[in-house]
Every structure is written in C-alpha cells, then in structure tokens.
Design goal:
3 domains; 7-stranded mixed beta sheet; 3-stranded mixed beta sheet; 50% helix; 14% strand; globular; alpha/beta; Butyryl-CoA Dehydrogenase, subunit A, domain 2; Butyryl-Coa Dehydrogenase, subunit A, domain 1; Butyryl-CoA Dehydrogenase, subunit A, domain 3; 12 strands
Length: 449
C-alpha cells in the first residue's frame, strides 16, 4: 500500500464511479457549478443515461445467473480463487459511458481536429464536464476522490482513445498535471494549484518530459534547474511534443537538479525565459503538440513540487511507469478502432466476385489484429494491477510499452493494407489511426495513469 499525503493508492474497485456519483449529487457539485456539466457529459453528451444503466443491469443480472448455474454444475472449487480479468460492475458502467462519449463526441470531431492540429474548445469543455479531474483530487482538497485505481483509469483511457487518440491526449493532459501535484506536491502546493481544475472552465495544462534529442532517456533529462543566489530557480533546456502547448496555462516540467536528480517544477505561462511554439507531429495532431524553450526561466521556490526538504520523495521512474501504462491503454483503444472498422469493411468489400474476407490472407490478417490486441490489453492491465497493489511495476510497464509500440504500429499498418487504396486516403480514418499508433513508440510522459 502506498500513501501520498492523505490520498490512498492501493487495491481499488470502482472508486472513480463512486466518486462521480458522490460528486454529481453533492453540495460540492452545486458550489463548484459542476452538477450540470457532469450530468450533460455522462447522460446527455455521451447519451449513456438510463438506457445504458438498465441494459447493463439486465446483462449483469443475466451474467451472474449464468455464473451461478455454471458454478453449481461444476461444484465447489477446492483450489484458489479463479483468475478473472472481467471488470467490476462499476468499471463496466464507467467503460460503457466513456465509449459512448468517444463514439458520439470525439470521433465526429477527430478529422477536423487532426487537420487543424488543435483540439476544438467545445470538445475540451465536454471532456472536462465528464468530471474526471474531480475524481482524481482528494475530498480534503475539494475533489471527490477517496481512492485511485490505475486499472479503472486504463479502462477510461482505452475507451476514450477509441474515439480519437489526439483528442483524448488533449482532454487527459491536464489530468497528468493534477496527478503529479496530488502525488508529489506539498499540502500548500495542492491547495494552491488544484482548485482551478475543479471549476466549470477547462484549464489547459501539460506535463513536459520528452526532449528533442536522439536516444532520449526519460530517467536522465538534460533540462536542468539551477538554484539562484537570490532565491528561486532558473530552468534551462527544451521540451518537445507537449500537448496543448499553445494554450496551456500551467506546465509541469521535469528538470535535473544537480546532486539530487530529476524533479518536477510548476512553470506558469508568461514566466520570463519561457518560449512556447507550435510543433505539430505526424500523429496525435489533435492534441495541439508544441515545444517549450527554457532559457533561464525563473520560478519561485514554491514551484518545486514536494519542496526542498524531501528531495527523495519524487521518483521519476514512477512517473515514467504511469505514463507508459497510460499510453499503452490508449494504443489498445486506437487498435480496437482499427479492428472494429476493418471487420465490416472486409465483410462487405467485394473483389473478383466475392467479399474479400473469404480470402485466407485477409481473414488471417484480421485474426492477427484481434490476437495482438488481446495480448496488448492483458499486458497493460497486468502492469496497472501491479501498480494498484503497490508492487514493483517497472519491468511490466516497460514490456507493455514495448509490446504496444511494436504491435500497435503493425495493427495500424495492417489496417491500411486491408483497405487497399482506401486505406491511403483521408476519407477513411484508418490512415489517421495508423499515424497515431506510430506515436506510441516515440512519446514519453504527457499522460499519467
């Protein structure tokens, strides 16, 4: 069990859903003007509503009845508990709501956002109205969270990425800042920086880790922080592929402190010495990627997360592990979109007098996509589960990242191949998913599970 300043991190069930329900019906929601947005996002924007709840309840009851009948047929088990990867009822309901939001809000806006290389304000506002920030901030700081479940977060990230990975990155980017402040910030820093994320307005913010150099090692950033003789810190270096760079009001920058190691600094927009420029990439374009240049950027002592008294509390490895799990979950979501698209296409597309799915080469390629997706999902969920249990996760997070980077890119390539000429044009979304999936092997940081 790991504790972070009054915020319990351990074995969790469906804590985010409970937090959302508590938030939606509490005086806190009215005071923060979140009651309407939460309801619109969950029940109107995503149109999950009572139909999803009732249908889920019926299916859950049917599933439990079937499980009971099967257990009675097999007799009592004499061994350990059965290995079960099925989500809890609450996680399944949250997953279904996020899926509807992805299908009905994110996917229709994805093409235009990719072309413009920036996320629409309306989509960001709707994503903020889901109330995810409130579910990550402890109740003692004005939020609604009592626990944190990395597995549940992975399910949310996966479902949102089925709509569009770029827009999902933009929506989740401020949550990485929230997670960093909740996990490593002092009580004073949490009280100062977190309240704006609970307000009705979407607050653009981003975590900046990646640097534009070959063989970048996230454990050893070249961006540095130097203690000023008159107090505060001066930051030097460059960060790349930062989401929401053009609009972010707050950045959390990973910088090396000599003799201590990597630390996190809160850098507000307008800080002297900070230059921000747009820098769209091949994929994840809808996230509004950009570059930060830090040339003696001056920040006060309060900008150092965790303060100077306890320099060993921040572990950059933990940050990287959480980021890799988050990107892996998004790769699974985007890969699932490819599979969901190519199956009906191959079953309806005809060539030489028959549908192309009748040909073994096509059928085997589709089957390979499905198989690789299951492997990716299992590795991501294993790493997330170990993190929730307080176990060492570095190896499993790295393996999940490598698997998702390699197989995700292959899934995107195979999706384009299955569509033939149609896979090469923007009329079909598979070419965009291919470009987004290639980003998994490049991006580090930006998101935290």
């Amino acid at each position: 069990m790991v504790r972070s300043r009054g915020f319990k991190v351990g074995k969790i069930g469906g804590a985010p859903l409970r937090a959302l329900a508590r938030l939606g019906g509490s005086e806190l929601a009215a005071r923060l003007h979140l009651l309407g947005p939460v309801q619109r996002a969950i029940y109107e924007g995503a149109r999950a509503g009572t139909k999803a709840i009732s249908s889920f309840g019926a299916s859950a009851a049917k599933k439990r009845a079937a499980q009971a009948a099967e257990a009675q047929r097999l007799g009592p088990s004499k061994g350990p508990a059965l290995f079960d990867l099925a989500p809890t009822d609450e996680q399944a309901l949250m997953r279904d709501a996020m899926r509807r939001f992805a299908e009905e809000v994110l996917r229709p806006a994805a093409h235009a956002a990719d072309a413009a290389a920036t996320p629409p304000d309306q989509v960001l506002a709707q994503g903020h109205a889901l109330g995810l920030a409130g579910m990550m901030i402890p109740e003692s700081l004005g939020g609604a969270a009592t626990e944190r479940s990395t597995v549940t977060h992975a399910l949310i990230f996966e479902e949102l990425a089925r709509g569009d990975m770029g827009l999902t990155t933009a929506i989740l980017s401020p949550l990485a800042v929230v997670q960093a402040i909740v996990t490593w910030g002092t009580g004073e820093q949490q009280a100062r920086y977190l309240p704006p994320f609970l307000e009705e307005r979407f607050v653009p913010a981003a975590l900046a880790l990646l640097e534009p150099r070959p063989l970048f090692d996230p454990m050893r950033p070249r961006t540095g922080a130097v203690r000023s003789t008159d107090g505060g810190w001066a930051l030097w270096g460059e960060k790349s592929l930062v989401p929401l760079a053009a609009t972010a009001e707050v950045f959390v920058v990973v910088a090396e402190v000599r003799g201590v190691g990597p630390r996190l600094f809160v850098v507000e927009r307008g800080t002297p010495g900070l230059t921000v420029e747009s820098d769209p990439a091949m994929g994840v374009r809808a996230a509004g990627l950009g570059r930060l240049r830090l040339e003696a950027a001056r920040v006060p002592d309060e900008a150092l997360l965790g303060g100077q008294a306890s320099p060993n509390e921040f572990d950059v490895g933990d940050l990287v592990d959480r980021a890799r799990i988050a990107w892996g979950a998004m790769a699974v979501g985007a890969g699932q979109s490819v599979l969901d698209y190519v199956v009906p296409y191959c079953n309806s597309r005809q060539a030489f007098g028959e549908v192309i799915s009748n040909r073994q080469a096509v059928a085997f390629m589709v089957a390979d996509i499905a198989l690789e997706l299951e492997g990716m999902r299992l590795m991501v969920h294993r790493a997330a589960s170990r993190l929730d249990q307080g176990l060492d996760v570095a190896k499993h997070a790295t393996l999940a990242r490598m698997q998702c980077a390699s197989k995700g890119m292959k899934i995107g390539s195979d999706g384009v191949q299955l569509l033939g000429g149609h896979g090469f044009i923007k009329e079909h979304p598979v070419e965009r998913w291919y470009r987004d999936l290639r980003a998994i092997g490049v991006l580090e940081g930006a998101l935290l599970a």
